[in-house]
Specification:
The complex is a heterodimer of chains A (about 200) and B (about 625). Chain A contains 7 helices and 7 strands, in the order E-E-H-E-E-E-H-H-H-E-E-H-H-H. Chain A is α+β, with helices and mostly antiparallel strands. In chain A, strand 6 and strand 7 form a beta hairpin. The longest helix of chain A is centred in the middle third of the chain and has 17 residues. The termini of chain A are far apart. By secondary structure, chain B is of the alpha/beta class. Chain B folds into 5 domains: about 100 residues, 3-Layer(aba) Sandwich (Glutaredoxin); about 210 residues, NADH-ubiquinone oxidoreductase 51kDa subunit (Rossmann fold); about 90 residues, Ubiquitin-like (UB roll); about 90 residues, NADH-ubiquinone oxidoreductase 51kDa subunit, iron-sulphur binding domain (de novo design (two linked rop proteins)), CATH 1.20.1440.230; about 55 residues, Alpha-Beta Plaits (2-Layer Sandwich), CATH 3.30.70. Chain B has a 5-stranded mixed beta sheet. Chain B has a 4-stranded mixed beta sheet with strand order 2-1-3-4, covered by helices on one side. Chain B is globular. The chains are: A alpha+beta (about 200), B alpha/beta (about 625). At the A-B interface, strand 4 and helix 2 of A face helix 19, helix 20 and helix 21 of B.
Chain lengths: ~200, ~625
C-alpha cells in the first residue's frame, strides 16, 4: 500500500496505480476526455492535470499517467490546474462548437463562452484519439489513425482512402466522447467491412 | 588526401592499441611537417559562397604553376572553420595564413604569390573591424583568438572523409585507452567527474544519466541502446550539423565509448534528412572505422562488439524530442509520450537507452583521453567545459563560436562576434532557439551557462544565438517563433495544438495594432496554461519567447496596441515608408528596385512614395545609399 495525499485527504493506493485511478477509487472527481479504461492512456487532452509537490516546488502533471508514489501530495483543483483546464475547455469550445457533451463539461468548469473564433461550426471531434486506440488495442485492426500534424491533424484512414481493414465493428463510435465518430464511420469503412457483413450473413 | 600509401594501411584491421599506434606512427612518418597545405573550407556557408569553384580553380592554377611534385602543396577540404560570414575561406599551412572571401579568380595569385614566392596576398586578409589593420594569421584574428575550441578543435584541420587524418590527429586514442585500461564503470565515473551536461538543451548531467542507465540495465537486463540525437532543428542553429560534417569520428568515437560503458551492442544516429552532408560523412566514417576494426565485431581486438546505424529524420522538428525520436526510429509517427518513466529505463523499444546530443557525444573522447578533471577545469562549477554556439543575426562575425561555459554574453556578441554592423549596441539576443528566451542589451553581462541563462528567463538550448538590432520588432520575433512551433507541433495534446495557434492569433492582432492590455493579460495566462499543460518540451517551452519579450520589452507591445505604432518599423500594418527630400539625390535606385513601381520622381530630384501602391517591403530603404528612406 502506498500512502499519499489528494486535496488534503490521506488516501491509499496500490503500487502501479496512477493518480487518476487512485482519485477515482476514493471518489475524488478529475475530469477527462481522452481517458478510457479499455485502452492505454495517451495524455492527449490534458484535462486531467493535477499539481504535485509542495510550497517550495511543484509541477503540473497528468493524473491519467502519473504513477503514484509514497508521500505524493496532489492538488486536483489548484489555481495552476484551473488555469490549464479553463484554457483547454475554452479552446476546445471554439474548435468543436457542435458538441453538446463538450459544452456541458465546459459549463461544469465555469467556461460558458469562448473568446476564440470558430473555424467550423459543425465540428465535434476533439482529437482525443480514443477511436484510434480502441481500433488498434482492442479491435486489433488499426484501420484508423491520426493523419497530419499540428492544427492540420485529424482522424482518418490511411491516405484518406476507405480502409479495407475496417470491420465496421463500431467500437470507435461507442468509445467516442463527443459523437464525432458516427459522422465519420461511413467515410472510413471500406470493402473489408462489407466482406465481414457478407461472411456474417452466410 | 594526406599520403598515397595510407590506403594500403587502411585495409589492415587493427587488433590492438599497438596496431592503432603503429598505424598512427606510419601516417605521421610519411608526412613532412613543412609540407604546404592549402585548406579549403567545405563548411555549408563556404560551399554556398563558392568553395567548390575556389578549390577547382586552385587545383588548376597549381597544376599550371609547374611546381616540382616533391614539394607540390596539397589541397585539402575540411569541415566548417566557423567564420561563415567571411567565406569562402582558404588557409595556407604550415604558415597559418588566413585568406577570406576568396573567389576562383584569386586562385592564380594565391598560387603565384604565396605558394611559389612566399608572399602574402594582402587584399585577401581579414581586416580588424576597429583598426582596419590586416591580420595575416588565423590565430591572431580576434574571432578565433578569443575562442576556446574543444569540440571544434579538429574541425577545419582534418579531412572528415579520411579516417587517417583523424587518427593522425589523435582520433580513437580514447577508445583504445578505455577498452584496454578502463572498466565500463570507470568510463562512467570519468564522464561524471567531467561535470558534462547535455548539450541538447536541457542540461541534464551526462554522467548521472549513464549511471541511471547502468542501474536500469542491472534491473531489466539487456538489450540496451545508445543513441545520437542529430535532429538539430532550431532556426539559426547549425552547431551539430557542422560537428557531424566536420568531425564525424568524434561523434562516433564518443558513441562507441558510451556503448562500452553501458555494455550496449547497438547504437543509432538519428540525423535529420536535411543534413545530407552530415549523413554522408557519418556513413563514410562508419565504413572506414568498420574496415579498421574500430567498429563492429571485436573492436580493436578487445572482444567488445558494437555497431551503429543511421536513421534519417523525415522533417519533423518534434522528433528531436527524446520520446518522439524513439517512436520515429521504431517506425511510427513521431509523437512524444509523457516521460514519467525516464528513457534510461524505458527508451527505444522500451529498453534502457542513453540518448545524448551530437555535441555531448563529441566531447566524450576528449574527456576519456584527458580526464574528467581536465574538462571540469573549463567553464564554471555547475556548467563545466565549453559550448558551441551558432552566432547569427545582426552581428558582424556570423559563424560557429566555442567558448568556455560562463562566458559573458557581451563577450560572445561584441568581442568575438564583432557587434552589430554599424556599431550600435545590439537590442536583444535570442538564446536557445524558439524554446529559449529573448534577452535585452541590459542583460549583456549575464554569464552564458545553464543556470544563469535559466535564471534570466531564457535557456541554453542547443546553442543558437540570434542577435537583433533596433530594426527587429519583438512582437514580430515572438510571432515568428510561435509560428515556427505551431507548424512543428505534432498536434497530439490540446495546449500545444490549439494554444500556440491562439497565442499567435493574439500576436497577429498586436502586429496590426489590434488588442488591449486585457489581451496581454490573457496572452500571459494562456502562455502559462500551455507551459503547464503541454505534453512535451516543444509545447512547454514554446511560450518562452512571448513571455521574455513581454518581460523585457513590454513598452514595445504597448506601442503597438495603444499607439498603433511599431517602433522597430517592421509590422507592416503600422508603418509608412517615406523619403527625406533633403537627403534624396534623385539617383532613382529605389524607383528601379521598387516591385510595385510606387516610387516616382525626376532624375536628380527628390522622389516620393505612393502610399496606395506601397506594400512596405523595405527594399527602397535597403537600396538607398544616402539614408534618405525612413520608416515610421
Amino acid at each position: 500500500m502506498i500512502n499519499m495525499v489528494i486535496d488534503g485527504r490521506q488516501v491509499q493506493a496500490q503500487t502501479g496505480w496512477t493518480v487518476l485511478e487512485t482519485a477515482r477509487q476514493h471518489g475524488i472527481h478529475i475530469p477527462t476526455l481522452c481517458y478510457h479504461e479499455a485502452v492505454e492512456p495517451s495524455g492527449a487532452c490534458r484535462l486531467c492535470v493535477v499539481e504535485i509537490g509542495d510550497e517550495t516546488w511543484s509541477k503540473v502533471v497528468i493524473s491519467c499517467m502519473y504513477p503514484v508514489a509514497e508521500g505524493l501530495n496532489v492538488k486536483t483543483d489548484s489555481p495552476r490546474v484551473r488555469n490549464v483546464r479553463r484554457w483547454i475547455l475554452e479552446m476546445l469550445l471554439a474548435e468543436c462548437p457542435a458538441s453538446p457533451e463538450l459544452r456541458a463539461l465546459a459549463a461544469e468548469y465555469g467556461v460558458k463562452t469562448t473568446r476564440f473564433e470558430s473555424h467550423n461550426p459543425e465540428e465535434q471531434c476533439i482529437l482525443c484519439g480514443l477511436c484510434v486506440r480502441v481500433c488498434r488495442e482492442v479491435v486489433g485492426v488499426s484501420a484508423i489513425s491520426t493523419v497530419g500534424r499540428g492544427v492540420h491533424k485529424k482522424i482518418g484512414s490511411p491516405y484518406e482512402v476507405a480502409a479495407d481493414a475496417c470491420v465496421a465493428c463500431g467500437s470507435c463510435v461507442t468509445v467516442c466522447p463527443t459523437g464525432a465518430m458516427s459522422a465519420r464511420l461511413d467515410a472510413i469503412r471500406g470493402a473489408g467491412a462489407g466482406r465481414v457483413a457478407e461472411k456474417g450473413g452466410k | 588526401m594526406p599520403v598515397a600509401t595510407t590506403e594500403a594501411a587502411s585495409a589492415a584491421r587493427l587488433n590492438s592499441p599497438q596496431d592503432l599506434a603503429s598505424l598512427r606512427d606510419s601516417i605521421l612518418a610519411q608526412r613532412d611537417p613543412n609540407q604546404q597545405e592549402v585548406i579549403v573550407c567545405y563548411g555549408t556557408g563556404c560551399l554556398a559562397s563558392g568553395a567548390q569553384q575556389v578549390e577547382a580553380a586552385l587545383k588548376k592554377s597549381l597544376a599550371k604553376a609547374g611546381i616540382d611534385a616533391k614539394v607540390r602543396p596539397l589541397i585539402k577540404t575540411t569541415g566548417c572553420r566557423g567564420f561563415c560570414s567571411r567565406g569562402p575561406l582558404v588557409v595556407i599551412q604550415p604558415q597559418g595564413l588566413f585568406y577570406q572571401k576568396v573567389s576562383a579568380a584569386d586562385a592564380d595569385e594565391i598560387v603565384d604569390s604565396t605558394l611559389v614566392n612566399g608572399q602574402v596576398v594582402e587584399r585577401l586578409l581579414y581586416k580588424d573591424l576597429q583598426t582596419g589593420e590586416a591580420i595575416a594569421r588565423e590565430e591572431d584574428i580576434p574571432f578565433y583568438k578569443l575562442q576556446h575550441r574543444v569540440v571544434l578543435g579538429r574541425i577545419g584541420t582534418i579531412d572528415p572523409t579520411d579516417i587517417n587524418d583523424t587518427i593522425a590527429a589523435g582520433g580513437y586514442q580514447a577508445l583504445a585507452k578505455a577498452l584496454y585500461q578502463m572498466t565500463p564503470e570507470q568510463v562512467v565515473s570519468e564522464v561524471e567527474r567531467s561535470g558534462l551536461r547535455g548539450r541538447g538543451g536541457a542540461g541534464f548531467p551526462t554522467g548521472r544519466k549513464w549511471k541511471s542507465a547502468l542501474a536500469a540495465i542491472k534491473k531489466k537486463g539487456y538489450p540496451a541502446y545508445v543513441v545520437v540525437n542529430g535532429d538539430e532543428g532550431d532556426p539559426g542553429a547549425f552547431m551539430d550539423c557542422m560537428v557531424m560534417e566536420g568531425d564525424p569520428h568524434a561523434v562516433l568515437e564518443g558513441l562507441i565509448l558510451g556503448a562500452y560503458a553501458l555494455g550496449a551492442h547497438q547504437g543509432y544516429m538519428y540525423v535529420r534528412a536535411e543534413y545530407p552532408v552530415a549523413i554522408k560523412h557519418l556513413t563514410i566514417a562508419m565504413d572506414q572505422a568498420r574496415a579498421l576494426g574500430l567498429l563492429g565485431k571485436n573492436i580493436l581486438g578487445s572482444g567488445f562488439d558494437f555497431d551503429v546505424q543511421i536513421n534519417r529524420g523525415a522533417g519533423a522538428f518534434v522528433c528531436g524530442e527524446s520520446t518522439a525520436l524513439f517512436t520515429s526510429i521504431e517506425g511510427r509517427a513521431g509523437e512524444p509520450k509523457p516521460k514519467y518513466v525516464r528513457s534510461v529505463e524505458e527508451g527505444l523499444w522500451g529498453r534502457p537507452t542513453v540518448l545524448n546530443n551530437v555535441e555531448s557525444w563529441a566531447n566524450i573522447a576528449q574527456i576519456i583521453e584527458k580526464g574528467g578533471e581536465w574538462y571540469a577545469s573549463l567553464g564554471v562549477p555547475h556548467s563545466t567545459g565549453t559550448k558551441v554556439f551558432s552566432l547569427v543575426g545582426k552581428v558582424n562575425n556570423v559563424g560557429l563560436v566555442e567558448v568556455p561555459m560562463g562566458t559573458p554574453l557581451v563577450h560572445i556578441i561584441e568581442d568575438i562576434g564583432g557587434g552589430v554592423p554599424g556599431g550600435e549596441p545590439f537590442k536583444a539576443v535570442q538564446t536557445g532557439g524558439p524554446s529559449g528566451g529573448c534577452l535585452p542589451y541590459d542583460m549583456r553581462d549575464v554569464a552564458v551557462d545553464f543556470d544563469s541563462l535559466t535564471k534570466a528567463g531564457s535557456m541554453m538550448g542547443s546553442g543558437g544565438m540570434i542577435v537583433m538590432d533596433k530594426r527587429d520588432c519583438v512582437v514580430d520575433v515572438a510571432r515568428y517563433f510561435l509560428r515556427f512551433l505551431e507548424e512543428e507541433s505534432c498536434g497530439k495534446c490540446v495546449p500545444c495544438r490549439l494554444g500556440l495557434t491562439r497565442m499567435r492569433e493574439i500576436l497577429d492582432g498586436f502586429s496590426r495594432g489590434v488588442g488591449s492590455e486585457k489581451d496581454i493579460e490573457d496572452l500571459v495566462s494562456l502562455a502559462q496554461a500551455v507551459q503547464d499543460g503541454a505534453l512535451c518540451a516543444l509545447g512547454g517551452s514554446a511560450p518562452n519567447p512571448v513571455l521574455t519579450t513581454l518581460k523585457y520589452f513590454k513598452d514595445e507591445y504597448l506601442a503597438h496596441i495603444n499607439e498603433k505604432r511599431c517602433p522597430a518599423g517592421v509590422c507592416k500594418d503600422l508603418i509608412t515608408y517615406g523619403i527625406d527630400a533633403d537627403k534624396c539625390t534623385g539617383c532613382m535606385t529605389c524607383a528601379r528596385q521598387c516591385p510595385q513601381n510606387a516610387i516616382t520622381g525626376e532624375k536628380k530630384k527628390p522622389h516620393v512614395i505612393n502610399q496606395e501602391l506601397c506594400i512596405r517591403c523595405g527594399i527602397c530603404m535597403e537600396s538607398c545609399k544616402f539614408g534618405a528612406v525612413n520608416v515610421a
